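Need tokens for this chain, all 452 residues.
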Amino acid sequence: MHLSLATTTSAGLARILLPAALLIATAVPARADDTTAPTTQTADDAHEQVAATADSPIDALVRAAYAHNLELQAAHARWQASSERPAQARSLPDPVLGYGYFVKRMETRQRFSLQQMFPGGGRRGLEAEAATRAAEAAEAALETTAARVRSEVLQAFADWLLVRQTHALVAQNLDIVVSLQAIVQQRHRSGDASLADLLRLESEADLLRLDLAELEERRAPALARLNARLGRPGDTPPDPALAALTSLPPLPPLPAVDLSPDLAARLAANPELLERRHLVRQAETRRELSRRANRPDFMVGVEFMDNRGMARDEVLGMVSVNLPVWRTRTAALRREATADLRAAELDHADRRLSLEAEARQTLFALAAAARRLRLYDDTLLPRARQTLDLVEADYRTGRATFLDLLEARRALLALEQAALNTRADHFRGHAEWEQLAGPFSSTVTKTDSADE
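Here are the structure tokens for all 452 residues:
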């Protein structure tokens, strides 16, 4: 089962993992003037959210995280805020309305004026373009948050399920050891087993009970971590369909990736890199704005003068221009914009290199985990079970000691626990790989308000 975020494809500003349409049913306010604070799920809401879908429990779990994760809701609100700034930047400054009254008696009693400033040098369009680039960066940041939340939910689920699986495994072994205690006690009474064998078995049972108690205590923190990523209270019980799972779902094989060109191509769609590319374009626009800082602004206005007596009222047209003569300020502004652009380019290059290194490490860890899993499933576990069966048969006929039997059971338990840990590592690594390499082409139509 592939748990990727990809579902549909769109274009332009519609490209995003978690737009408003996905959150309509999630208590995320759609209107810009809605000040309702986001709330966490109740247990009933959480179960209804997961039960409302026909997908697998894992897909439903991820969908519940998309709907209720508070960090994701905050990222969505930041994107909504940034998407409103281009319209503000395109708008002209507010006109200035003036009124004057002559206190001392003069021919003119009062006057009214109206003035409008027009930024020169095309700066208004550049400001709107810079705001658009910032909105696109916020859009990519939302997609980054969605990918990270998905990965964290899957990893938290793997940790929670690992605690449950290990608990069940230890409890099963404890039951076997307790049943062996009764057998050894009978053999000890008949003189076929030593007191040392019985004491070793009691110690083994005590150690298993200690492990069981620690695992029981780890259940609550593991569940609280999972619920936190789902936007739920920490003590919310898991959905019944999720609680019924006893093993991690099978994962699809990873695509063959050539670490030279293919890896760079896969990472090119990473939303973190997209965000930084948008920030580079915003910095380029800001630099162009700084180069036009010495262009004058124009003020156009009209003034009406109300005269006394028989004097005719007068209307005066006005045009004024500001004088950007302070070259020190504009030169500093250009240097600042150039430095900001350089910083944005370096951030993009640094993050690209870091992502490539993380991807290589993740691929290595995944391959290593897959090799270990094959070794456990195909060789070590079958061999350990066969060894235990042989030792038990030898023990019944007196050809093996009780210590041999105990060591064989300990070895099998250790291998079973190691296999569970490795399977969880492989599942978590797969989630990390999809966070890094996608696919990221999931979109749903955005809505800016409930009226649209």
